[in-house]
Structure formats: C-alpha cells, structure tokens
Write a structure and sequence with these properties.
single chain, mainly alpha, 2 domains, elongated
C-alpha cells in the first residue's frame, strides 16, 4: 500500500491535478499513480465547470475564482455579463449567481457603494 500522506505523493498529486485543470494538456505517460489520480481529479473538476472537453474548449474558462465572483455579484445585487460563455457554463454560473441573490442584503450593497463612491469608484 502506498503512503498517500508522504510529501512526494502529495507533490505528484498536486502536479497532476493542476495539469488536469488545463484542457490543452493530455496525461503524460509513465507517471506515478499519484500524478494520474491527481490529473483525473483535475480533469473532472474542469469538466464540472466547463463541460466535457470532447464537446470543445470554450472561449472563456470558468474557474472557482470566476464562480466566486459571480456569487459575490449576486450577493451585492450587481448585474452580470455572461457574453462569450457556453450554455453549459451559463447554467453553472447561474446557480452560483442565484445562490448569491438568495443571500442578497440591500444594506450591504448600499454600504459598499458608499465606500466605493468615497474613493471615486463608480459602478455602472
């Protein structure tokens, strides 16, 4: 049995995971089990947000950071621009945005807008 808690296993797993998130990379041959497992997990994570690679690589890539931005936009009641996203991605984005809307507090956005206005930042 392999020691999955070793630093080497972790490093190989993380390397594979990060490569799996890149839709342009293919799995490299002769890699460790940790790398292969990490790559497959990264690829599943990518496809969960962007759709299957066999259906094409979208113009814009959705990441966890992008989804968090849409969640925040929903929480603050800010309208979003979903141009150039695929239908699959819009479905994923809309769930996060809707979750933010459910947590929307109009007082938070008015406080934020006041702070931004004080600093000379206008939100259109």
């Amino acid at each position: 049995m392999k020691n999955i808690f070793s630093p080497v296993y972790r490093q190989d797993y993380l390397q594979g995971f990060s490569n799996g998130l890149n839709p342009y990379l293919k799995i490299e041959e002769n890699q460790s089990d940790a790398y292969v497992f990490g790559f497959n997990q990264g690829r599943l994570d990518y496809e969960r947000m962007n759709g299957k690679i066999i259906h094409g690589i979208p113009k814009l890539i959705v990441t966890n950071k992008v989804l968090e931005d849409f969640l925040l936009a929903g929480m603050l009641g800010i309208s979003i621009n979903d141009d150039d996203y695929t239908a699959f991605q819009i479905d994923v984005i809309s769930k996060w945005y809707q979750s933010g809307i459910e947590k929307y507090n109009p007082y938070q956005s008015s406080y934020l807008l006041a702070i931004l206005e004080e600093n000379g930042i206008d939100i259109i």
